[in-house]
Amino acid sequence: MDLINQALPWYVSGPLIAITMLLLILVGKNFGMSSNLRTICTALGANKTCDFFCFDWKGQSWNLLIMFGAIIGGFIAFNYMSGGNTPEINQEVVNELKILGFESAGNSYLPVELFGEDVFSSLKGVFILLFGGILVGFGARYAGGCTSGHAISGLSNLQLPSLISVIGFFIGGLVMIHLIFPLIF
Amino acid sequence: MKSIVNLIIGIFFGIVMLKSEAASWFRIYEMFKFKSFHMYGIIGSALVLGIIFIQLIKRFKIKTFYGEQIYFVDKNKSIFRYLLGGIVFGLGWALVGVCPGPMFTLLGAGFFPIIIVIVGALIGTWIYGLLSDKLPH
Lengths: 185, 137
Prior knowledge:
The complex is a heterodimer. Chain A has 9 helices and no strands. By secondary structure, chain A is mostly helical. The longest helix of chain A has 25 residues, at 160-184. Chains A and B meet through helix 2, helix 3, helix 4, helix 5 and helix 7 of A and helix 1, helix 2, helix 3, helix 4 and helix 5 of B.
């Protein structure tokens, strides 16, 4: 039981992600989570607004099932496998985050300042989450994939476009953390 | 039957995302600060094994569980869309600390403010659809 309740080290997590991709290939599908966002847009009626969403979204229902599975997996891991335990992040990072105003650094899975229930009554918090989500959704579709589609599937298949995308992910991430964070937190 | 298999793969993926801490905002922040090997180890080891898996499938012409041929489609060649799209994605990834897989895992784990991120991601996807003809690809 102890094993189930521990966080997974990187050398177990990485191979398990590769196995997720392998299983999807072996059932004749592919590993790409952001496609679901497009599918949901179409299911909600976005196909009435532009051609990009005009496709048979029901043909993507297998991927929606993967997504529903990921939701259930989150529920199981959090409630029955101690999945929400505090990550042991670098102490220097904890100190740095406390200075930025993230008091929950080092004692929660996600920052309470952004993901606690109080955030619903904070205009700044809601704006950050909404805007961040918009960037993720827009960027993933523009780049034609996200971490699963490019960083894992694409790079595993030695695709140059995926390498360019992953370099982009890092440029964006570094700019956000090093240049923009000091301005907004 | 196939549906149940897909659902189980998704559940497996969700558990791995939460337990690996790849769904933790703090881990993403730490990664972009280069202060921990954790995320690099995850992505790196996934890649090494992933490359081996795909090479084996190609070399031995392995078929799916259902006996079908496996095809790998090469991605269209370009720089613009991948670099610009990647940068926009990275900005968002670092800000909210989740990518499109973990956002659903966190919903299941009961972090309900993630709903705002998911709504944002849907809006972002929709905006891309509206503008895609006008963007450089």
